[in-house]
Please model this.
Amino acid sequence: MSGKSIHKPEYKALLALLIEMRDKAELTQSQLAGLLERPQSYVSDVERGVRRLDLLQLHEYCHACGQDLAGFVRKFEKAIAGSSSLHAKASRAGRGHS
Model:
C-alpha cells in the first residue's frame, strides 16, 4: 500500500461529498454540529480531513443531513469509480512480478 489514505484522491472525494451532503441539507456547520450534539469544530475538522469518522459516526452524520448511509456510499462509489479502476489495474499488473 502506498501512503496514507488521507492524501489519496478518494479521500478528497469523500470530504467533498460530506460537504456537498451538508450543503444540500441546507445546514451550516454549526447547525449540523448541534444535531450531532458536538461542537462546530468537530464538523470543521471532519470536513477538512483532520478528524476521521468511523462507520457509526458516518451513519449519524448522514442521518443528521437527511441522507441514508447506503445512498451516501453509492454516491461515494460512483465518485471514485475511475480512480478505483486504475488501482485495480495497477494491482493486477503487479501480481506476476514477485
